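Team,

Forwarding the record for the chain on the shared tracking sheet. I've put the sequence and predicted structure together so nobody has to dig through attachments.
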Amino acid sequence: MYGIAVTCGRGKGQLRLSNRYVCLAGPNLTLVGNQPPAYLAPNAGVADIALRVAGQGPGEHLQVTLTAPDGAVAFSGNSLEGEDHMTLDLRAELAQERAPWVLELTAVVEDISVDLHGCEPRLATHPGRLLVPAD
């Protein structure tokens, strides 16, 4: 396993790995631009997961889709639909404990923040790279 830190202040930094899958760590993530589908794992024993996804301003909107392990879309919406026109609060009940869910962040204007609750504080670009604690 490799750990790569990218710190760019308020500017844009990009790390592109075309031949490897990655796992991003942190309960709070700040991303820029469209993202590949990301997998997340619910915490053991929780009844639901909650996510807060936001653009950095009313003009920086994005499309958010959260898909359950069985392929059913649990949430689909645009941040323009949020009360402040930039924030979406997602909540989904868990039918399958610990199976990976898919988070898609598309139609992104610029900056995105993602807060994860009720799930492991990691996103991965492949379900096989999703780090979860051993039971």
